[in-house]
Sequence to fold (1511 residues):
Amino acid sequence: MSAQKNRLGNGGRINRGKPLRFTFNGRDYQGYEGDTLASALLANNSGAVARSFKYHRPRGIYSAGVEEPNAVVQLETGARTRPNLQATEIELYDGLSATSVNCWPTVEFDIGAINSLAARLLPAGFYYKTFMWPKSFWMTYERVIRNAAGLGKAPTAPDPDTYHKCHAHTDVLVVGGGPAGLAAALAAGRTGARVILAEQEHDFGGRLLSERGDIDGIPAGDWVGLALAELNAMEEVTVLGRTTCFGYYDHNYLGMVERCHINAAKSMLEPKDGPSERLWRVRSHQVVLATGAIERPLVFADNDRPGVMLAGALRAYLNRYAVRPGRKAVIFTNNDDAYRSAIDLHDSGVEVTALIDLRVDPDGPLPDAARARNIQVMDGWVITRVLGNRRLRAIEIQRLTADGGAITGEARRIDCDVLGSSGGWNPVVHLHSQSGAKARFDDALQSFVPGPARQAERSAGAANGAFALDDCLGQGHAAGLEAAKLAGFKSKSKTKRPTAESIDEAPLKAMWIVPGEAKPGHGSKHFIDLHNDVTVADIELAAREGFHSVEHVKRYTTLGMGPDQGKTGNIPGMAVLAGALDTEIASVGTTTFRPPFTPVTYGALAGRDIGEFSDPARKTALHHWHEQASALFEDVGQWKRPWYYPKAGETMQDSLNRECLAVRHGVGILDATTLGKIDIQGPDAAEFLNRIYTNAWSKLAVGRCRYGLMLGEDGMVMDDGVTARLAENHFHMTTTTGNAARVLGWLEEWLQTEWPELKVYCNSVTEYWATMTVCGPRSRDLLAEFTDIDLSAEAFPFMSFKQADVGGVAARIFRISFTGELSYEINVPASHGLGLWTALMTAGEKYGITPYGTETMHILRAEKGYIIVGQETDGTMTPNDLGMDWIVSTKKDFIGRRSLSRTDCTRPGRKQLVGLLTDNPSEVLPEGAQLVFDVKPQPPMDMVGHVTSSYYSAALGRSIALAVVKGGADRMGETIHAPLIGKTVNCKITGPVFYDPDGSRIDGA
Amino acid sequence: MTSRYSIFSLMRNAIGYHQGWQRAWRSPEPKPSYDAIIIGGGGHGLATAYYLAKEHGITNVAVIEKGWIGGGNTGRNTTIIRSNYLWDESARLYDKSLRLYEGLSQEINFNVMLSQRGVLNLAHNLHDLREISRRVNAIRLNGFDSEMLTTEQVQAMVPILDCSKDARYPVLGASLQKRGGVARHDGVAWGYARAADGYGVDIIQNCEVTGIVREGGKVTGVETTRGLINAPKVGIVTAGHTSHVAAMAGLRLPIESYPLQAMVSEPIKPVLDCVVMSGAVHAYISQSDRGEMVMGAGIDHFTSYAQRSTLAVVEQQMAAVIKLIPILSRLRLMRQWAGIVDTCPDASPIVSKTPVDGLYVNGGWGTGGFKGTPGSGWVFAHTMARDEPHELNAPFTLDRFTTGALIDEHGAAAVAH
Amino acid sequence: MFLIPCPWCGERDEEEFSYGGEAHIERPKDPDALSDAEWADYLFMRKNPKGTHFERWNHAHGCRRWFNAKRDTVTHVIEAVYKMGEEKP
Fold:
């Protein structure tokens, strides 16, 4: 184990009392609690930790935050692995194991580096220009490309972690726990408003963690501690660390993800109690965006070598983690802020071999402080060359000409092993943009700052383009007060804002492409997007080829399309494009900011809605009985319906034959609970039914049932069912299982939006009533044992309804039949369902009672030519197509009627419902088989219809089928063919009723 | 005229550090008049311009695009290509499109990266199996490719798919179209643009049409933010904004604009070699050549032109996709976005003449746009050039809403509408 | 996810509602008097505006009542909600 060569003896926010062991690329290291993987690697003097996406160039750690484009690792292995995490965002824990992605066999020696040699052949968009020949080879090329692409690897087993979600309503959401955010949360919290403060890091303080300085006269770190203590003590304030606000949606709805267990030493390797991440769905009255700023680099030749970093990151590692990022540091800047890194490095004992400022005569407190430390400031110089492929070892600098446009004179070499560059800071405007607001380009900052808000939000601090600490505190405070006030909470007394010393800084000077020895792309590479290996040359190429919009350039070059979402590269990229187009950055615009700000785990978005919770499984009151009876189930929408009840040793066909014959010759029982049941009451109920159904309802007698057909306004069959008149103004409608909710919605829509004058009230009672269909010639005998009413055909005719006690339970009995046999549909309150069913089963033994499922039900109704909506119909069949003219009233209007007379609905040759009998009676047609009159040896063939339902009929001892065939009603007796794979089945067109055509079995006599 | 693309020109240009590449398409000032104007510079509009030039010799054409070409749905879709639709009319049109895709890169000398890796439509219940069977048989007998797979065969093709029996909605089988797959959407737009430009078609970006000028029931040109441009033939190809533009000519359409959202994961090494679609679970997913898992869902349930993503949809989508492929749970969502799709009452497009002489409309493609791009351009070019639809798009006439001859493809659209 | 102010229940998440398309499409009183084209207009043709839209919503996971809304289809700002039968704002 190496000894943390770069760890300073004291300072930093790490806990030296808790050393942690970790493994990276197979080597063991040591770090401390409080480290990230990146800081620990730097402490151990890591050099290259990764290889770049396209060119496989060695890369080192670049930054100290979510903007990290280089140090992408695979964390752990197996089921717990996570690909593509940034080492800067991984909190170190004991036993951590990680590997570099995108390199093989090792980071040090990577075969992919061959791409570097071919780099000139691989400019942006090269794949559009080649790989086209030979034509069949693209998929071969693709296989190679796909294996080379991608970064980390997906887990190989299901996720062992769980994820939770919660909702939160709050008065003020403060995003960002740096100085502005803390000031805002304090100001708002003190008014009594409900506040949520969300900070993406595990530590609060934001930029303060990386800087030295005071707030309100005390060290900033101490101020942060006091602020947190006060916030945590406020009842209405929720402080969330490790919580990233990733998306800003409509009406102040924001998404956040909280990482719950990352820090605990055991967390990644052992099962957890509780969720590993929590998704917060926040609706906030007001939002304060204190999301800070991200530094952008200067773009110079070969600016991607390991050891080249962002200037601010150098002092972040120093101050936050007590890690010296190198032994000889160089700073390259166009602004004053980077001087802070030089100063802090010097004060920590790191040799700052040069500070290169491309501005001439930089003046002010920060340059003065640097000079006071005898740091060599090379003003008016730029870096033209970087030496060291695997590790930075030196740079070359040259002077700028007087107009700053070119380099001149002799190059000077400066030794260094770490280089921090700064081109300025970009306010993090992502959430502001996501909220629908625009950003505007600020000339002084040379970056985008928030424009006018579109929703109830405001930005404060660095996110708002105010980088001075005192301004951050002031803006945060004001924003917090304003937000609380708009949410209805006024400050009780004049609360004092926190203050800090103001340090003057001179303006930065933009230089988007630092000149090198040759033009960009001619030998060296000026990298813009480190993650996707997009260079200045690529952007200039895109512009040259006519890709002028920033969206085109992004897509053509892949600028900003990696997991780091271009956080360091987008602004420089746009500036280079503006330069190539000879226009202003402001007019180039930015690409649309889209959620999420940083990647969000799929599992966290899914939460608990997976596995058995992914969709409710609806079960009837009788479900348990079916399970005990070894029923197999069919999914019908969300319902679990018994499909059939196999007995030991039976094939499926055996079971079906047994069930069918039992119903036809004895008695069967079916759980019909799932069919929709809608209670309809009111003085206008009958009139309403007249308008909804195709047939007439006003004259239906009380105690009678009628089959109804419902059409869409387009004239197509939508649903069907039997509806009973329970009383003058009281109906009980049934629907198909799948359409129950849809039909109720349909009824309500018409009543509420078109016919509010009708007094009709509808209620779903599907789950209120358990429904069991007792069916077959012996059904009367069985039922007679359970009820006193007269069950004779005269007293209780077909299509009528009676209320009576059945088995001691008040029941509704409907004499309706879907099988053609004598049949009673008994409805009892659901809580009594199981009891009655069980009693019927027991008493029914002597009659050979047989429970039957949906498959048998399908067969029996098909034998009688009854349609099933959704099977014989598909939204394109009219009643006439189904041979159901008889049910279409000619005397009244109803929904869909007018559509039936459109030309396409009345033309000859429409598909019509028919029956099919195969020439070979034991051959069962497959459902979905297409039908032709004219068979050809090969497709294509003219299809004239298809098989909608097909079964073996035990009652008939042969197969039957229903189908829809063009002009079928006029082609009775003709032969039609079903061309299957490998054979063609011939059949005859018949009417759809196969069994008991005159309906003589209905009374069971 | 741009230089030809090939490995040789790539190598030649590499020597000169790629300074020699020319613009892929010009950026001309609009002329005062053209023989035909295509409103909309997406894939369909650019394809139309290309085929007008190539098949019909009509090159004095302007494609007028309010933003940047391919910036609408062409740049936002999930890149799936297939032709496994139910009705004869649809199957024929989509398969024409697929066949055009099959030779497109070579024909326009731009690699659109057509990857015919296979498209699976999963069946999760008996009803699904019936419907998918019906569709497979119809496609087969129309002479196109489609087959049924058993659960075991599906598992073999997609090892990461959860095919267990105790899934909430187990996979009972699937249809497979081997010739289906994906392509690079931007490549299609840029490729057609470059090729059309090569014929002399003017592609005019950042030019918004603000009015359609008519005289006595005949179209004479368009008003734009860059002035009036005359033409005797105008085609509206502005997916998402079809109603909006058609209204400029007083046309009412049966189209409503709904959001369609999509999302990608971070890039990972290959785990999925085909396209998987599930109607019951409301998800479709494939893996891009960059390694990202690309997925989409059904349309949002209200009309919108906002092109904004939402959290609720991505939550449902992730839950759906984890149901199908459990190992995705630990991957991360990298980016989400939205487009606007024209939805038609029958989920089929409108590629048609209109009551206004010389005005043609091509829209209503819903979720079928990207796969239909070449076919759409090809038949629409015919329709505009000959002033009558081709046999392949004749059924997709605006008139069908009057006669009732709708072509209902909600099932084959395979995602929630 | 935007908020919809249900006239009965107040502001609720849009997830609780189902959408009913363009509002104020009255069913023709005498369908037989219409030509097929006029009937098709009622059945299918829609304004689909980019901007202010008068549309119907149903509070499906709440009070289950239908109401109308005036919503901007670009910004999703709901300018007004009004009950069935009330005047268009």
Notes: Residues 263-267 of chain A have pLDDT under 50 and may be disordered. The first strand of chain A starts at residue 15 and ends at 24. The domain at 15-149 of chain A is CATH 3.10.20.440 (Ubiquitin-like (UB roll)). Chain A touches chain B through 113 residues (CB under 8 Å).
